[in-house]
Amino acid sequence: MPLGYLALVLHAHLPFVRHPEFDDFLEEDWLYEAITETYIPLLEVMDGLERDGVDWRLTMSVTPTLAAMLSDPLLQYRYLRHLDNLITLAGKEIERTRWEPEFQPLAVMYHHRFTRARDVFVKQYGNNLLNGFKRFFDTGKLELITCAATHGFLPLMVVNENARRAQIEIGCREFERHFGRRPRGIWLPECGYQEGLDKQLSDAGLRYFFTDTHGVLFAHPRPKYGVYAPILCPGSHVAALARDTESSKQVWSAIEGYPGDYNYRDFYRDVGFDLDYEYVKPHLHQHGIRSMLGIKYYKITGRTDHKLPYNPKAALDKAAEHAGNFMFNREKQVEWLSGSMDDRPALIVAPYDAELFGHWWFEGPDWINFLLRKMHYDQQTIKTITVPEYLDRYTKLQVAQPSFSSWGYKGYCEVWCEGSNDWIYRHLHEGADRMVELAHLNGDQSPLRRRALNQAARELLLAQSSDWAFIMKTGTMVEYAHDRTRVHVNNFNHLYEQIKHDDIDEGWLSEIERRHNLFPDLDYRVYA
Questions:
Q1: Whole-model pTM?
Q2: Domain holding 489: CATH number?
Q3: Hey, which residues does 351 pair with through a beta bridge?
Q4: Listed residue (245, 244, 228, 246) closest to 347, CA to CA
Q5: The CATH number of the domain where 393 resides is what?
Q6: Which of 23, 285, 416, 499 could lock 469 by a disulfide, CB 3.0 to 4.6 Å apart?
Q7: Residues 274-307: pLDDT tens digits?
Q8: 125 Cβ partners below 8 Å, 6+ apart?
Q9: Is 29 within 8 Å of 359 (Cβ atoms)?
């Protein structure tokens, strides 16, 4: 038996961004970039591990908004259009760099990557990557978990328990619709937890959730094993697991962690900004504003504006070295912990945003590939595991009440409620109260009225997304976050008045149903 286990957890999430009212929309690139740079490379890693007989375990959330976009025919079509544009650009780059030996192999590499991504997307997974994740989920190697419906920040919904319960239950129903069974675990949005939330998780049939380090470390009574074993919440007996800061910082920190190594590809040097405007203009969005195109020729190099050409082999060697270093550190960590763990091995929980791997850290999927292979072949001290496997093997767990917590700046939800974004909550709270009021309306509802009630629920859910408050705080794409919040709040209030006065504008309703079409099986009565 190993001395300890590693639960590697990837949180795959994007806010719902879909704009059929425009032929071309910049923010939809968030999805297309994540598919090409993160989700397909991760599926390729899993394919390789299965092919080579490697015993591996990985946990991954697929949030309901991400699942809605990955399964949407319009976005699938637009992704292929996006890829075809990049394949054309990469072909041009092969020609342009024919006399530049330091860059032409990179242009060839990108052309191959984009072409390969298209083949995998279309031929292997039928335009829907959820088919790929479900395949590995069914093998038991990949543990998929859900999230709140639209990544709503649950601690700040405490004023309306029905609205919070709806976020959780809809998240579970959408997971079941896509993957064929109810989830066992949940990624709490922004790892936001407060006392009592676990009871609602239990009511939804969930068995475990993740918090930031201090959520478990400051539990009452103090956990005997710190963050290295799950604890059970009093009453609900839902297991809480906390992030191990030592393993996490080694990976996610761009300054102290692996992604900042000077050999790795520089994210910010992109041909969309580096090359002549007229040359790249045909490959930009219709409004012509420069943007990232995904072809990047330089390595980080150092704290300098003078960047050296990227060397894929050197970067791959460094990823292998860093995977070995991470494994060695975890071996030493569990060896040290084994003296304090009594009758159970330590469980090290290492959660990260999935989009770190491949999108922000280009070599991240290779690092995961090397790590899982090394852990299988090179040592027996620590092995990967999923949380349900650990809970089934070690059933005697300490009962303790987790602490109020989130991740992000200071760890107590300040990111999602401060001067730049606190104005949204009066509208969200009133909307939640109104939605519960609508859900309790008596009598049979006509088909049109049911459509309006269900769409009102969608608009409220979309307004509650924690992403908008986060964007307002970080200062990126703030106007878009403001617009999305206002649009959904206004749509909800308009529907509320129409429903209350039994005067529903079917034409307008059809249009917003077309634009905001997620969760097709949504039943507004979940708010009752």
A1: 0.97
A2: 1.20.1430.10
A3: 9
A4: 228
A5: 3.20.110.10
A6: 416
A7: 999 999 999 999 999 999 999 999 999 998 999 9
A8: 43, 131, 132
A9: no
